[in-house]
């Protein structure tokens, strides 16, 4: 899929900022693609963008209405339908990362078809993929991996791409989740691909390229998470990474969704991910850490990063607090 921008970010009647996290990710990383935000009465989220009506956004060239709400159950509220229909009338496509499909809303689908507009359900791939082969292909690839889910793999990959491009690298962020797809404008939601084809989908997403080109691949889950390791393994094999960056949240008491399972030791997590990656790239290795220190004060965060770097002999950074330059320094 290729989603046209500029975007108008629709926050609906989000009850709190977290409920608009999809739109927040787009606004944070692709603010120049956004003409503004559209909020309904009662919305408690604010991205700091200008509030725009549909007509105002259309007049400024908005091409896609992004459903930026991540509500419980991933469902469309009936109150949103009028907005979507008007957006189509004004020449916009619609893109959504919700579990439910915008293309299953009959009046919206019928109007989109009649007007020749596109509906993007980015959580649901619309093409078939070949089975992965594991054959070596030119180009370089960096994969963000982690000790658990929801610890900053997407943020890390985007921060690395930004720093690499600022230095003149040929680098592209490759999105593997719904928010990443909206940020990149295309990609594959890997957790919605049938398991046999995950590695092939990633080979498609990060194909052969120039020898000096880097694909910076968004990671998903963790090989040591019992619930989601399957999608991670296919992603590791398909991306065929030259290098990996290990993401971690040091204050987390247990793995996400598993209160009786501790977050694994970093040494074990590195060993498992390197072993899996070397199935398709014998030289794959972890070169640094991206640490989410949001729950720590400045002094504790600095102390932890220094101790971690000394323990493993590789850079340990928080991309929010200090950026990712020490990791990019290793990429040549």
From TrEMBL:
Per UniProt, residues of the D-glutamate N-acetyltransferase-like C-terminal domain are 131-328
Q: Which SUPFAM superfamilies match?
A: P-loop containing nucleoside triphosphate hydrolases
Q: Which Gene3D superfamilies match?
A: NAD(P)-binding Rossmann-like Domain, P-loop containing nucleotide triphosphate hydrolases
Stretches assigned to the D-glutamate N-acetyltransferase-like N-terminal domain: 52-125
What InterPro entries does the entry give?
DgcN-like, DgcN-like_C, DgcN-like_N, P-loop_NTPase
- Its transmembrane ranges are none
List the residue ranges forming a coiled coil, or say none. Answer: none
Q: Which domain of life is it from?
A: Bacteria
Q: What is this protein called?
A: EBNA-1 nuclear protein
* Record organism: Skermanella aerolata
């Amino acid at each position: 899929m290729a989603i046209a921008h500029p975007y108008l970010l629709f926050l609906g009647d989000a009850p709190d900022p977290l409920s608009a996290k999809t739109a927040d990710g787009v606004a944070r990383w692709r603010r120049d693609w956004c003409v503004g935000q559209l909020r309904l009465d009662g919305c408690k989220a604010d991205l700091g963008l200008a509030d725009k009506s549909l007509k105002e956004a259309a007049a400024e060239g908005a091409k896609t209405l992004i459903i930026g709400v991540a509500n419980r159950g991933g469902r469309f509220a009936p109150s949103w339908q009028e907005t979507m229909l008007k957006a189509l009338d004004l020449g916009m496509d619609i893109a959504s990362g919700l579990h439910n499909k915008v293309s299953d809303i009959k009046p919206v689908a019928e109007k989109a078809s009649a007007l020749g507009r596109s509906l993007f359900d980015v959580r649901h791939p619309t093409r078939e993929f070949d089975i992965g082969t594991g054959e070596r292909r030119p180009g370089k690839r960096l994969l963000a991996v982690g000790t658990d889910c929801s610890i900053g793999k997407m943020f890390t990959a985007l921060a690395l791409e930004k720093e690499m491009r600022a230095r003149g690298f040929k680098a592209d962020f490759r999105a593997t989740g719904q928010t990443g797809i909206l940020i990149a404008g295309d990609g594959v939601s890997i957790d919605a691909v049938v398991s046999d084809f995950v590695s092939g989908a990633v080979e498609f997403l990060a194909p052969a390229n120039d020898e000096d080109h880097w694909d910076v691949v968004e990671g998903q889950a963790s090989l040591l998470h019992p619930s989601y390791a399957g999608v991670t393994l296919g992603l590791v094999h398909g991306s065929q990474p030259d290098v990996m960056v290990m993401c971690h949240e040091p204050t987390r008491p247990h793995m996400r969704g598993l209160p009786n399972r501790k977050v694994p030791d970093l040494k074990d997590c590195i060993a498992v991910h390197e072993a899996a990656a070397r199935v398709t790239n014998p030289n794959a290795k972890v070169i640094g850490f991206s640490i989410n220190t949001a729950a720590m004060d400045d002094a504790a965060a600095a102390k932890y990063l220094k101790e971690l770097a000394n323990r493993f002999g590789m850079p340990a950074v928080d991309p929010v607090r200090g950026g990712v330059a020490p990791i990019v320094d290793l990429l040549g």
